[in-house]
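Sequence design from tokenized structure. All designs in this work follow the same two-part layout: the structure record, then the generated sequence. An example of the structure record is given first.
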């Protein structure tokens, strides 16, 4: 992994900045993210950056904050660039100057927000990067990065293709978020998202949601599912878990993975586990961290489940847990394309999931590869877990489905849409 600040690139010799740029078919591809925070989006972009570099493309990974647990896993072929953060007001001024007609749609979510998106401060440096480096394509993921990239491209001029990737259904966030800027986001998306050269989403459900929110015709939006690096995942899955509950002949372990936030609805999973444990011996492990950890721990204590629930926090290798768990349970209220389901398939772990918008039904093919239950229904979730404990799908079936999401296949689909037509 090569790391630098974007402002440092100007001092590098041209032959370094444009290394091998004349190689036939070689493209300069940039991926822009707010950070490399733990989660499905970061892991998906990690897989894609390496796959692009392995295909002999020049790849820059541009981050607002050069931080996150995946940084150490970035391929040495990929250059990591940290943007400099300017003032909020400079970023806001540039955002408005990109399109004066968008002033009113920016007013509430950006200009007058007491907590505007942190990415707005990085807009000036992203503009400078685009003007100086002139990548063939800039791929972005997550809504704040998508918006900043589209504004930066307007300001920078040039011919860089902007390919935005929406990773989750936005409507539930707009309706439920306590951050008031989200409530006024739709008009800004309607104004700015049509500027993109390509709009990609990670599931058909997200595509329909984006089309409904922005007014962009559904035919302009392409679904490409998130990738899984099968070889890497399955190698890590073979590592022994350092946890006493995975010893031979121990009670079955039900596994949940994700941030401790309301969206993941681990409260429903804990309640469902209580029902399961009242019928048979079992244990629950929830990997991840988040702001409602204390609430989840209090719920477990109230239900008398503390001795059989473990919450070890973020772990570098969740795949070893998936490979040795008896059931993987996704309890989310909404998703985009939950990578953890694809990874659980790759690890051969039987799955139970809520039929939330969106992604699980598409990944599990309407229940073919794991039962789907209503959102928030802990009784139905418990019944499905018990059914899977008694009658799990075979690993070969699960592995076969996971191969549909292998990173090589997914990367080729991305490259088709990242190239000029």
């Amino acid at each position: 992994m090569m790391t630098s600040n974007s402002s440092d690139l100007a001092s590098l010799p041209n032959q370094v900045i444009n290394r091998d740029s004349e190689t036939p078919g070689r493209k300069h591809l940039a991926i822009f993210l707010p950070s490399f925070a733990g989660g499905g989006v970061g892991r998906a972009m990690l897989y894609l950056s390496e796959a692009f570099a392995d295909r002999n493309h020049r790849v820059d990974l541009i981050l607002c904050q050069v931080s996150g647990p995946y940084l150490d896993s970035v391929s040495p072929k990929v250059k990591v660039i940290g943007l400099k953060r300017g003032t909020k007001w400079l970023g806001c001024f540039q955002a408005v100057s990109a399109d004066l007609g968008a002033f009113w749609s920016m007013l509430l979510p950006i200009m007058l927000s007491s907590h505007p998106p942190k990415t707005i401060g990085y807009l000036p440096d992203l503009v400078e990067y685009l003007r100086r480096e002139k990548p063939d394509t800039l791929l972005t993921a997550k809504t704040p990065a998508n918006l900043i990239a589209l504004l930066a491209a307007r300001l920078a001029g040039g011919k860089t293709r902007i390919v935005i990737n929406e990773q989750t259904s936005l409507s539930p966030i707009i309706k439920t978020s306590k951050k008031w800027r989200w409530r006024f986001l739709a008009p800004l998306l309607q104004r700015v998202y049509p500027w993109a050269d390509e709009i990609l989403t990670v599931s058909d459900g997200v595509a329909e949601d984006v089309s409904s929110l922005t007014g962009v015709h559904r035919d302009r939006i392409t679904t490409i599912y998130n990738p899984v690096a099968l070889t890497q995942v399955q190698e890590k899955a073979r590592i022994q878990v350092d946890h006493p509950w995975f010893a031979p002949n121990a009670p079955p372990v039900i596994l949940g993975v994700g941030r401790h936030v309301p969206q993941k609805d681990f409260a429903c999973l804990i309640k469902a586990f209580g029902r399961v444990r009242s019928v048979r011996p079992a244990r629950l492990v929830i990997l991840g961290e988040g702001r409602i950890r204390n609430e989840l721990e209090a719920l477990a204590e109230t239900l008398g489940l503390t001795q059989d629930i473990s919450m070890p926090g973020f772990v570098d290798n969740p795949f070893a847990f998936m490979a040795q768990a008896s059931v993987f349970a996704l309890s989310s209220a909404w998703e985009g394309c939950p990578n953890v389901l694809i990874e659980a398939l790759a690890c051969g772990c039987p799955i139970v999931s809520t039929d939330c918008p969106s992604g699980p039904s598409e990944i599990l093919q309407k229940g073919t590869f794991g039962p789907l239950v209503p959102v928030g229904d802990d009784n139905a979730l418990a019944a499905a877990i018990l059914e899977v404990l008694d009658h799990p799908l075979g690993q070969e079936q699960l592995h076969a489905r996971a191969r549909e999401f292998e990173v090589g296949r997914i990367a080729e689909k991305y490259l088709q849409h990242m190239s000029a037509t």
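Residues 7-21 have pLDDT under 50 and may be disordered. We note this feature because it recurs in several other targets discussed in the main text.
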